[in-house]
Design brief:
It is a single chain. By secondary structure, the protein is α+β, with helices and mostly antiparallel strands. The chain is 41% helix and 11% strand. The chain has a three-stranded antiparallel β-sheet with strand order 1-3-2. Helix 1 packs across helix 2. The longest helix has 18 residues.
Length: 113
């Protein structure tokens, strides 16, 4: 069975710096949390000739950027799979409110004319 999704993390530097640098190069990775990581789904455009080599070169440059910027705050954060700073009572309340609004909107029935 083919693999179409991959994720990675680092114990050496803040992985979200890698995401910042990859965004500058046009790549879109998703931030994860617990542990902090990045993931990407591989779709047909990523299977075209030369894309793997470009990704590898851009990732190497992003790792250099992350290493050079150790100790500074990255622009990126985990949106998928977590909340920056962890779950606080305020964050939990926010998530519950948003989820209730989404569920209400998705289950709403249009008014009859």
């Amino acid at each position: 069975m083919p693999t179409f999704l991959f994720a990675f993390t680092s114990d050496e530097f803040d992985i979200y710096h890698v995401n910042d640098a990859m965004k500058e190069r046009g790549w879109r990775l998703n931030g994860l949390q617990y542990p902090n990581a990045l993931h990407m789904a591989v779709t047909r455009p990523q299977t075209q000739p030369g894309v793997v080599e470009t990704f590898a070169a851009d990732l190497a440059a992003a790792v250099e950027y992350a290493t050079a910027n150790a100790g500074s705050e990255p622009q990126s954060a985990a949106v998928y799979g977590g909340i920056p700073g962890g779950m606080t009572p305020e964050a939990e309340g926010f998530v519950k409110t948003v989820m209730e609004q989404i569920l209400d909107a998705q289950q709403d029935v249009p008014a009859r004319a």
